[in-house]
Amino acid sequence: MPPVAEPVAEPIVEVAGLAPDALPDEVLRSTEPRVLRGLVAQWPMVRAARQSDAAAIDYLKRFDHGGMPVVATVAPPEEAGRVFYNADLSGFNFRREKIPLAVALDTLRKYLGDPAPPSIYIASTTVDTFLPGFRAENAVDFGARDPLASIWIGNRSRIPAHQDVPDNLACVVAGRRRVTLFPPEQLENLYIGPLDHTPAGQAVSLVDFHAPDHARFPKFAEALRHARTAVLEPGDAVLIPSMWWHHMEGLEAFNVLVNYWWRRSPAWMDTPMNALMAAILCVRDLPPAERAIWKDVFDHYVFDYDEAGVAGHIPDTARRVLGPLDEARARHLRALLLKRLNR
Fold this sequence. Notes:
Number of helices: 11
Order of helices and strands: EEHEHHEEHEHHEEEEHEEEEHHHH
Distance between the termini: 56 Å
Shape: globular
């Protein structure tokens, strides 16, 4: 059987000339990914990284208060930076260690010249908690949005394709990263693993992007036809809209990314993943005829919901969860769900 010809991913649309203190709202509201070249190129962190990896490490250590350990994901050299499962998906190919940030940074410094170091990856660490003062010198103005800022530090890494519910602005501030994106509708073609047993909280693609097994994952070729990719240099950023699949690779011996997550829905709304899990528990394994009925019910009350459709037969004061949700109604609904689930 001849080898499968890999489709060539399209480049992510690029936008240049933007400033971190004047991001256009239409960019932050985009439902399509965008590479923002040079967005944070003038950050002191980026300038230090362009000087050297050691200078970048020293810059980060300036803000380390040392008050609590970070969580480092550590894997042996033969994993080549891939954060993944073990062979039968019963566990993972890495271990997690709680260590002081300064120790993690010094260890990364020690391995800078090693051609086959162990993988060390400090993932999704809250900037304001662990590096107080960093954002004052390295800032992005999001206007009325109040995003969660996280930092990701490590050597060469490969993070399997996964989704996040929030919108995401990811800024490369040291090293280089390759990002490969897929539209949300490529779910079926990416061969997603378990929902409730994941390497880092989100379900991930089981396909090894460096060596895809097309016999085992034949639909992945179709996913690749919809892929978009870019290599980001220090100072570049990528906007990843909600629920776009993203595969992230740290390409250098030292890589740092700062990202910002925000949602377009109110803070009191729960994540839709909770609804998915509840639907698996309550709906998925019903007899086919009953499941079809409930699909119609979900369409009526959720996906095609028309509030005007209930206005004629339920008074405003009696609509409860059928009226517009607000914080009080959400709190009532959450309490009702907890009571029912814990019966």
